[in-house]
């Protein structure tokens, strides 16, 4: 039931807040008695009808960040992690879902007795206060304390005391709010029946990080075990108290001189000596019985911390388990025998340091049940078996307040900082920020949650909740934070939460700060209450009197804004309320009136009047049917958006869309807007925003829309304040510059181009009329202003063409991705390479092959050479396939920005960037190299190759060289492709470096209209700025890449770095622009032998690969250009042999023998022509021929009588030699006899007559000819 209930219940909201029960405040202000009212409908979660309150039997812990919940019972537990989900209404909500469940206990009979979730702070500089991960600490009845990750992975376990763990509590760093406050250290405290252990927080943080890192390493690559730092802890034996059930570690405190002398006198008597400075002490408070509460003080330095060696929970590939003889151990991936052996040996448990009680609160009949420490470490709440809640002053050691009638109560604390708005009304505004402290008490017997102000404050809130809920209060925040790392952090933690098992809802409790300022008749609290009443009464009654009753101007302003943003309030009602408030403010003394509130009333009155006037014009023209009903939701939505001015698009639609459609009187609307006092610049912004955002509707009727836009634009230009009368014709007009800026920033290129053309014409007419009125010709003004429009229109035309290309949807199966939105502004900010970068991203989305892009660019060049000749062909192609856009049009608009070399460079970089995001897509890197090869300028080619190598390639390449595939993050297939691309990249790099001196560097340019680009340099410009490379070092890396590629292609087990001496190894993975000490002279013969063996294995692998290809294909097939069957592998091995000081003739002879061994005689004869040492090759082939003949005569399954007779006629020497041959070494023993006869003929030609085996070759020839004749 437990696990099933978790799955059902805890997919719950985490951010629901409890609403305040304010009925008692209302009755107090209305003159009635203070009665405990019921909560609002929103917080009624319902009484649990379950007869089995299972949650009370569970150990529950919630992380202070509310992202992990642990529920445990007996030996099982479930971890619930926070996840986002979308509900049925489309609203995203945070839920807690089971992420891990299972058994936690390791020893027989032990159960979970306590648990806490400790979020650990991230050590990254970019962290803003979110935890890096959360550690789950679980205490058991066996005395063990075990530490787990969020996914249930055991990190470490400690046995510090052989009694059941009663409570686990944590204290984390808090920024001191006042100078002189002692800075508290982080610690984890563990309570046992007779002892208490405190683990230093810094030591625990480092050990947990080390254990978690070791888990990650072992899971990834099985690296060696690294011993983490030991845990530093102190163990105290709490004496003079009969029973202890709970505790609180208050922290380090320093007594004043008087208290120091008082304590010395009490403890040491009259003659006691007093130290010069008060000692620092750690204070611990316990609750239980005999006495009811106990106070313990441990002087710092009185006990040295113990070191508990941490045993890792990870077994590496080399070690199956690691055990520590000190205080703790763990096992992971152990077999059953090992586990039993570990359980039998108990670790050493250090004895506790005795700590006597300083004093206590004796009450023989009262038994304490729990203690809850306040965030400020000065107060604590204690519950007992008499149903009392006691407030304890920890500094004085006395009880200062007691509540009765709270049996089985659960406690929590809220520390609320002062809000900025509250700070304005505070008489101590110049002092540090204040904090209010509240005690939260949950009484399950009564089903009520109460909030009390401290220390002697009233109850400020009460909520009716279920009787089986659980109050969750952590009392700590993130571990691993200090005064340096916490600077600028926003700690996202919840203080008190209430979990209701009947509904599965987790609620947070928040209290306004002002509730702690004074009693219930506080004016500010009353004003806040009136604001809430105002909100609830908006739909049903007049709210004018309530608004006028509010005293504080800031709260009155908040209430007015709430009214104006309400959708359901009629315009007439809003006008009357605002007018009444405005008149009231006018009647007051000017010195007592809040200027901001008065200005808000005035501006809102004007806006309401404007809405009324414009609405009447639209209604008269019958623009929208929905505007006929002023109470409709659509109208109200327009009102709300217009009044708040939160969205220009809705305001622009309301004011100008009817005019643009030709359904509203344009001139009357403009006159009304001018009379409202709105600046022409704001109206122009609204007009352009609605024009640009409704591009599709505009393009449906472009002629009519453009005509209406021209009319509105001219009307706005003629308004007072639009174009200044004193405008200097030799300067740019700010009015028209605003239009240009809006068009430049717009992503809707078509609408922006139409707006620019309309504005260009209007500006030209305006300038001409001004010149005519002055009876003179302003040539400079005309050319200066209109030149800006010419450039803007040209840029918008270019952007429209480019955007048309970018909006072409990708083909089915292409990479796809988000469409790049472009505008003049984004292209200019993208620098000189912004245009090419946009096109390169489109090329990637289309999955366009490099050769296809090359064809398009060549078509552009042909079109530029003879435009008329190819125009008809292009039109014919468009008619054949209208879906394929004319990509050459973009290249024609940007002849410089999209030059072939620049575009290939950006495409190359885009593909390598995408490959770096997903290294398994080897195709991306291959196409990046192909784009690189198409660059014609060796200078650009060299620079991009160098940047690719240093930025993306060398790190993974070095990892591959050390055979660390798991760290490379690439599979075998992708790794082979990656290494092949590395070889090609380095070859391109060497070729470009050789050709740089022969060709001058290209001069990059941009189109005249785009000369104002400001932004990052293009990839080509960065490439030209790169330093030259050291050719021998590049060749050295290319050699290694070729060896690695061969090893991966043919699955050869070899350590490539072992094929190089110390100088060669040290030169690898260095900057290619530096000069390194390279290997020189003759190599060690042993090293040369290893190299030769590797190359021979590569040739053997290639022969075996092409044999499979030849057998599957008919005839004499042509070998492919890539893969293990590529025809260039033999030539590459010979080239590598010359670089590795391996005799190439040995490689050729081996290749000939392997080809004959595979039965590929024709290919072997081609290679045989290049062999220099024919004698050695002849001897090798003689053995191979003997093996073939031996198979035919002695080992074939179908031996003929003729073959047996021939064997009897052979010379004894030849017969003995044939019997000694082993045909099993042949991979293809069954070869046609004519081929073998041809091979023997070649042997006789190669071997000289004086050769020792020449006669044997003749006998072989005679035997094969006789056997052929018999067949």
In a few lines, what is going on in this structure?
Residues 25-50, 859-886 are annotated as: Disordered. This protein is an alpha+beta fold and 1271 residues long. 45% of the residues lie in helices and 15% in strands.
What does this structure look like?
Helices cover 45% and strands 15% of the residues. Strands 10, 11, 12, 13, 17 and 18 form a six-stranded mixed sheet that branches. The chain has a four-stranded mixed sheet with strand order 1-30-29-28, with no helix packed on it. A four-stranded antiparallel sheet has the order 2-3-4-5, covered by helices on one side. Its main location: cytoplasm. Residues 54-472 form the Rab3-GAP regulatory subunit N-terminal domain. Keywords: Cytoplasm, GTPase activation, Signal. Residues 1-19 form the signal peptide.
- Uncertain segments: 1-50, 311-343, 623-647, 777-781, 867-885
N-C termini distance: 85 Å
How much beta, percentage-wise? Answer: 15-25%
Query: What's the shape?
Result: flat
Radius of gyration: 44 Å
The overall pLDDT, averaged over residues, is 79
Supply the helix-strand structural class: alpha+beta
Residues in helix, %: 40-55%
Write down how many β-strands occur, each being a DSSP E stretch of 2 or more residues: 30
**How many H/I helical runs?**
42
Oligomer classification: single chain
**Biggest sheet details:** 6 strands, mixed
């Amino acid at each position: 039931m437990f696990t099933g209930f978790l799955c059902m219940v805890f997919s719950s909201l985490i951010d629901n807040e409890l609403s305040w029960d304010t009925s008692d405040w209302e009755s107090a202000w209305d003159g009635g008695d203070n009665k405990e009212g019921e909560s609002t409908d929103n917080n009624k979660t319902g009484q649990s009808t379950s007869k089995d309150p299972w949650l009370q039997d569970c150990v529950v812990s919630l992380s202070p960040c509310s992202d992990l919940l642990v529920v445990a019972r007996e030996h099982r537990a479930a971890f619930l992690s926070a996840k986002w989900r979308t509900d049925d209404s489309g609203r995203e909500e945070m839920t807690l879902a089971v992420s891990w469940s299972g058994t936690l206990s390791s020893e027989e009979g032990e159960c979970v007795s306590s648990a806490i979730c400790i979020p650990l702070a991230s050590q990254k500089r970019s962290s803003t206060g979110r935890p890096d991960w959360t550690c789950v600490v679980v205490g058991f009845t066996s005395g063990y304390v075990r530490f787990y990750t969020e996914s249930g992975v055991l990190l470490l376990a400690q046995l510090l005391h052989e009694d059941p763990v009663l409570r686990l509590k944590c204290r984390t760093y808090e920024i001191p709010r006042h100078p002189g406050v002692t800075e508290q250290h982080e610690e984890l405290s563990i309570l046992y029946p007779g002892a208490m252990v405190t683990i230093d927080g810094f030591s625990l943080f480092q050990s947990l990080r080390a254990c978690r890192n070791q888990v990650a390493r072992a899971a990834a690559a099985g690296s060696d075990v690294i011993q983490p730092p030991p845990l530093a802890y102190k163990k105290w034996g709490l004496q003079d108290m009969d029973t202890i059930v709970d505790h609180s570690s208050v922290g380090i405190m320093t007594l004043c001189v008087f208290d120091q002398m008082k304590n010395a006198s009490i403890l040491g008597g009259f003659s006691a000596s007093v130290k010069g400075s008060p000692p620092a002490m750690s204070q611990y408070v316990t609750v239980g019985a005999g006495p009811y509460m106990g106070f313990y003080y441990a002087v710092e330095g009185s006990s040295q911390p113990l070191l508990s060696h941490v045993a890792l929970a990870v077994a590496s590939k080399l070690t199956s388990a690691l055990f520590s003889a000190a205080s703790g151990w763990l096992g992971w991936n152990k077999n059953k025998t090992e586990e039993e052996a570990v359980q039998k040996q108990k670790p050493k448990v250090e004895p506790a340091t005795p700590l006597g009680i300083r004093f206590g609160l004796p009450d023989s009949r009262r038994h304490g049940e729990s203690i809850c420490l306040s965030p400020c470490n000065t107060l604590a709440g204690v519950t007992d078996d008499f149903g009392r809640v006691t407030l304890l002053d920890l500094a004085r050691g006395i009880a200062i307040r007691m509540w009765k009638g709270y049996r089985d109560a659960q406690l929590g604390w809220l520390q609320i900082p002062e809000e900025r708005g509250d700070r304005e009304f505070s008489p101590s505004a110049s002092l540090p920020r204040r904090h209010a402290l509240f005690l939260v008490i949950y009484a399950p017997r009564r089903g009520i949650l109460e909030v009390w102000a401290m220390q002697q404050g009233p109850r400020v809130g009460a909520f009716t909740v279920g009787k089986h809920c659980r109050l969750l209060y952590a009392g700590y925040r993130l571990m691993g934070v200090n005064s340096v790392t916490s600077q600028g952090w926003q700690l996202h933690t919840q203080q008190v939460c209430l979990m209701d098992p009947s509904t599965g809802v987790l609620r947070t409790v928040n209290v306004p700060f002002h509730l702690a300022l004074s009693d219930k008749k506080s004016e500010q609290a009353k004003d806040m209450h009136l604001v809430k009443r105002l909100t609830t009464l908006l739909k049903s009654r007049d709210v004018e009197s309530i608004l006028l009753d509010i005293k504080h101007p800031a709260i009155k302003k908040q209430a007015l804004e709430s009214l104006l943003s309400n959708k359901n309030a009629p315009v007439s009602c809003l006008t009357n309320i605002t007018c009444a408030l405005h008149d009231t403010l006018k009647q007051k003394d000017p010195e007592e009136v809040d200027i901001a509130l008065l200005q808000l009333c005035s501006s809102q009155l004007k806006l309401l009047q404007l809405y009324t006037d414009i609405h009447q014009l639209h209604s008269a023209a019958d623009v929208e049917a929905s505007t006929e009903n002023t109470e409709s939701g659509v109208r109200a939505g327009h009102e709300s958006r217009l009044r708040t001015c939160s969205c220009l698009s809705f305001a622009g639609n309301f004011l100008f869309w009817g005019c643009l459609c030709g359904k509203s009187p344009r001139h009357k609307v403009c006159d009304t807007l001018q009379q409202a006092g709105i600046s022409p610049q704001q109206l122009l912004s609204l007009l352009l925003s609605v024009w640009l955002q409704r591009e599709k509707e505009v393009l449906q009727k472009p002629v009519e829309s453009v005509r209406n836009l021209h009319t509105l634009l001219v009307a706005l230009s003629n308004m007072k304040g639009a174009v200044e009368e004193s405008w200097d014709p030799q300067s740019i007009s700010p009015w028209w510059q605003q239009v240009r800026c809006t068009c430049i920033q717009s992503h809707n290129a078509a609408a922006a181009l139409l707006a620019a053309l309309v504005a260009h014409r209007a500006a030209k007419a305006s300038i001409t009329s001004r010149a005519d009125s002055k009876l003179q010709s302003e040539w400079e003004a005309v050319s200066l202003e209109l030149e800006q429009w010419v450039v803007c229109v040209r840029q918008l035309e270019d952007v429209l063409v480019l955007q048309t290309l970018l909006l072409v949807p990708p083909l089915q199966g292409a990479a796809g991705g988000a469409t790049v939105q472009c505008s003049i502004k984004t292209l200019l900010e993208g620098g000189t390479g912004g245009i090419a970068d946009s096109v390169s991203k489109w090329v990637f989305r289309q999955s366009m092959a490099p050769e296809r892009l090359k064809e398009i660019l060549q078509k552009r060049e042909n079109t530029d050479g003879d435009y008329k000749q190819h125009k008809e062909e292009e039109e014919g192609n468009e008619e054949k396939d209208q879906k394929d856009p004319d990509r050459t049009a973009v290249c024609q608009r940007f002849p410089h920005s999209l030059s072939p070399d620049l575009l290939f460079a950006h495409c190359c970089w885009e593909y390598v960037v995408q490959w770096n995001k997903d290294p398994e897509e080897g195709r991306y890197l291959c196409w990046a190299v192909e784009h690189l090869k198409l660059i014609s300028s060796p200078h650009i080619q060299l620079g991009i190759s160098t940047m690719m190598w240093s930025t993306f390639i060398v790190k993974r390449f070095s990892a591959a060289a050390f055979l660390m595939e798991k760290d490379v993050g690439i599979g075998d297939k992708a790794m082979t492709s990656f290494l092949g691309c590395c070889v090609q990249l380095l070859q391109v790099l060497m070729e470009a470096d050789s050709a740089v001196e022969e060709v001058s560097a290209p001069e990059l340019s941009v189109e005249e209209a785009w000369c104002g680009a400001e932004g990052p340099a293009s990839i080509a410009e960065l490439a030209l700025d790169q330093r030259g490379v050291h050719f021998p070092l590049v060749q050295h890396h290319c050699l290694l890449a070729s060896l690695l590629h061969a090893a991966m292609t043919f699955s050869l087990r070899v350590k490539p770095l072992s094929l190089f001496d110390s100088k060669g190894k040290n030169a690898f993975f260095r900057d290619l622009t530096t000069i390194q000490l390279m290997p020189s002279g003759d190599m060690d013969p042993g090293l040369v032998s290893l190299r030769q063996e590797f190359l021979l294995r590569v040739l053997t692998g290639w022969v075996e690969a092409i044999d499979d290809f030849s057998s599957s294909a008919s005839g004499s097939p042509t070998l492919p250009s890539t893969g293990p069957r590529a025809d260039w592998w033999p030539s590459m091995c010979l080239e590598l042999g010359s670089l590795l000081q391996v005799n190439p003739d040995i490689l050729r002879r081996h290749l000939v023998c392997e080809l004959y061994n595979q039965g590929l005689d024709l290919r072997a004869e081609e290679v045989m022509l290049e062999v220099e040492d024919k004698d050695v090759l002849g001897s090798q082939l003689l053995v191979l021929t003997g093996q073939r003949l031996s198979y035919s005569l002695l080992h074939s399954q179908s031996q003929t009588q003729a073959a047996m007779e021939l064997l009897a006629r052979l010379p004894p020497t030849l017969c003995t030699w044939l019997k000694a041959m082993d045909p099993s070494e042949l991979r293809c023993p069954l070869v046609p006899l004519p081929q073998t006869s041809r091979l023997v003929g070649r042997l006789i030609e190669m071997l000289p007559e004086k050769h020792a085996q020449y006669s044997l070759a003749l006998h072989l020839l005679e035997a094969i000819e006789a056997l052929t004749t018999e067949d």
